[in-house]
Amino acid sequence: MERQLISHLAHADHPIASPISEANLTRLLRRAKLASGARILDLGCGAAFWSVRLLELYGDATADGVDLSDAGFADARRMAAEAGVADRLTLHHGSATDFTSAEPYDLVLCVGATHAFGGLTPSMEAIGGLLAPGGLALVGEGFWERPPGREIEAEIGEYADLPGTVAQAESSGYHTVYAHVSERGEWYDYEWSWTGSLIDWALRHPGDDGDAAMAAALEHRKMWLDGYRDLLGFVTLLLRRG
């Protein structure tokens, strides 16, 4: 089973697709204080939950969502229609690294998708090429709360600590104007939802796909419970390009 489909199924009951509660997400998005007619770009949008919520909050904004997989696009269109914003959301099936636009954006999101650009620093540089002067970037990235063991870091990936993550994000001429550090409860809700939704799907779909989904869920759960639990943090930074 493709990794993108597994991720889509795992996020079925947690469409925010990051360790953030709906209340904290809304508070974070309101801090963007977007002007009338704002243009929004969501890189690695998945089911575009963040874009739909932004369009609900900012009534005359428009948004483009880009993702390498279109597994979440049907859900995105459904949510957008239910919210009454479908006419202001455009979805693009393709690589975020290849996306171009003739017009710049007032807000560019890249939440949990910096791997597409090869890390946080190159992501910020790529976002800068899509932003209008003085525009905002909303970037979600992992960081180590405490130094992990070598085995865990090799399995999960290389991250800085929180000060180092902020420094990387600001290294291309940005200034942090707000941020949210995911709380322990948000992490636990996210992880139990991710693994539980996938396990539930696997039990209801016996066969090769169900077996693959179950294996992915159990592998992920072990990696979390026995590995990065209470070690890996997540910060969502709102930055303005200076």
Automatic annotation (TrEMBL):
<dbReference type="Pfam" id="PF13649">
    <property type="entry name" value="Methyltransf_25"/>
</dbReference>
<keyword id="KW-0808">Transferase</keyword>
<dbReference type="GO" id="GO:0032259">
    <property type="term" value="P:methylation"/>
</dbReference>
<feature type="domain" description="Methyltransferase">
    <location>
        <begin position="40"/>
        <end position="135"/>
    </location>
</feature>
<keyword id="KW-0489">Methyltransferase</keyword>
<protein>
    <submittedName>
        <fullName>SAM-dependent methyltransferase</fullName>
        <ecNumber>2.1.1.-</ecNumber>
    </submittedName>
</protein>
<dbReference type="InterPro" id="IPR050723">
    <property type="entry name" value="CFA/CMAS"/>
</dbReference>
<dbReference type="InterPro" id="IPR041698">
    <property type="entry name" value="Methyltransf_25"/>
</dbReference>
<dbReference type="GO" id="GO:0008168">
    <property type="term" value="F:methyltransferase activity"/>
</dbReference>
